Every structure is written in C-alpha cells, then in structure tokens.
Amino acid sequence: MPEAEVLYSDVKFKKPTDKAIGTASPSEETTYAEVKIVKSPQPSSELPGSQAASHGRPGVTSERVAVVVLSVLLVIAAAALGYTTYQNMKTTERLVRQKAEYEALKKNCTEKKVEVKPCFPQPQPTCPGSGSCWKCKDGWEQHGEKCYFFSTKKSTWNEREDECRQHGGGDLVKIDSTEEQTFLDMRLRDVMADAEDKFWIGLTDSKEEGTWLWADGSPLNSSLVFWSNGEPDNWDGDNADGEDCVRMGEKGGAVEHKSWFDKYCEIPHRYICEKPAETGEMKCT
Predict the structure, then answer these.
(1) Mean pLDDT per 10-residue interval, the chain, length 285 residues
(2) Domain ranges of the chain
(3) Where would I find the C-type lectin domain in this sequence (predicted)?
C-alpha cells in the first residue's frame, strides 16, 4: 500500500450572512484541514543501461580484449607447433641417415668376414716369392709375415694364453721393430673407444722387477723400447706389488709412437694376439 504523505493547508471559509438576523460576520474564520495525498513512486530518469553507456560500454570492451588475447595465444601455439614439427623432421632425417651409414658399415664388414665392431679391413697379401703369398685366417689381420687379432673382449694379462688360443692360437704380441710398433700404434687409434681403452701386449717384469721379458721368455731389446713419458713407474695405487705388465695405445696418437704403459696385471683390458702368417698359393696383384 502506498505511503500517504500528510500535508497541512490553510483553508478559509466565509461565514454566510445570517439573513434572518440581517447581519454579516465581521471577519473570516480560518479552519485547518488535514489533506492526505498519496505519494506515487517517482520513475527513474535514467534508462536501463544508460550508466554502462555513459562509461564506454565496458562489457563490449572486455569481450574485444578477450578475443585479442585468444588470437595471440593461438598464434603462439601455432608457431610452437610448427617449430616442434620442424625439429622432429630434422631428427627423423638424421636417424635415417645414421641407420643407412650403419647398414653400409655392417655390410662392408660382413663382406670382409671380420667382426662388425671394430671393423678391420683386410690388406692385400704380401708375396714373398712368385706364386706364394702370406695369408691369415678369418678374423685375423695380416701385416708382413704376421697375423694379428685385436680383441673386443677384456681380460687380465694372465688370461692371455687361453684367450688367444680360443681365437686360433698364438700369444700376446711381441714387437720386434719400429715398423711393427708404428703399425700397431696407428691401428689402435682407430679402435680405441677412449684413452683408457688400451691393449695388453706380451711384455712383463713379473719374475724380476725391472727385468722385462716377452711372453715367449725372450728379453726386451733395450734399444727398441717405446715407453710413454714417465713410464714405467711401477705405480702401486691398484696393488701393493706395483705394475708388472704392459699395455699400449694412445687414442689421440703418441709422439714417435711411444705408447707403452706398465699396469697391474689383473686389470681387465683388451689384448693383441699374434702368430706367424701362413703361406699358400694365391694370385697376387
């Protein structure tokens, strides 16, 4: 129910002339009357949305900002996806190329009938005389009048006889010349995986310290030695008895092919077996 507002107003009434008496009222009388007026709600002078309009329509502006932000994010996502796709394509191409190179290497080694890792190409046989040539069995590499086996398995120096016998005989290599040392030193550069991936040779002073003997019992020629700088040092860090066996090899190449190091004999290393080459009737080119 609407609220009533009470207003007070002056209402003047004139007394009528008393005709019977024939006299008039000397003055007018004032009577206060209470007038009730219903106050109706005042309609708003502002239309709906007029406030939003007066401030630049913030709802519409927010929607535009959201669209712009979303567009930027989509562009960034598309760029990231494109870059990732490009990198994946390059990686796939590299893997395909490496696989092709590996298959070519494997095929080459298979045709030469040597171990796949490492691959030792078989040199042309040397002909000591007309119609007769040096040759080696499969898995052995021929150089001059000798055959060499470069192992892929590691073992101790004292296991060398059994290991060489399993691969066709012989014993750890005995180096008899500068030419032979040069050949072996350069071959090991190709097959060593790292600086410590050295190979046992058949030299030891286990019977008497400082007296170096080859595996066949012959003494080391003191004019034909290839010790690396500071070797032999008989270091006792691995064992109190010191170092009585010799390994060789320098991954980056040794100065003047001096690549011999004494080492504790029970440390596993790869090894080089050696045996005389066989002669046979072969056509030499």
Answers:
(1) 53 52 50 54 51 52 87 90 87 82 70 41 50 82 94 93 89 96 95 96 96 96 96 94 96 92 96 90 50
(2) 4-38, 133-280
(3) 143-274
How much is the pLDDT for 253?
A: 86
Q: Give me the DSSP letters along 236-260.
A: -SS-TT---EEEE--TT--GGG--E
DSSP 128: S
User: Which of 220, 222, 243 has its CA nearest to residue 231?
Assistant: 243
Structure token pair of residue 282 = 């072969």
H/E segment holding residue 92: helix 58-112
Multiple choice CATH, 133-280, 1.25.40.10, 3.40.50.1860, 3.10.100.10, 3.60.110.10 = 3.10.100.10
CB neighbours of residue 140 within 10 Å = 24
What does the alpha-carbon distance between residue 244 and residue 262 come to, in Å, rounded to a whole number? 6
For tokens 């009048």, name the residue.
145
**Interatomic CA distance for residues 254 and 250, integer angstroms:** 6
pLDDT of residue 61: 82
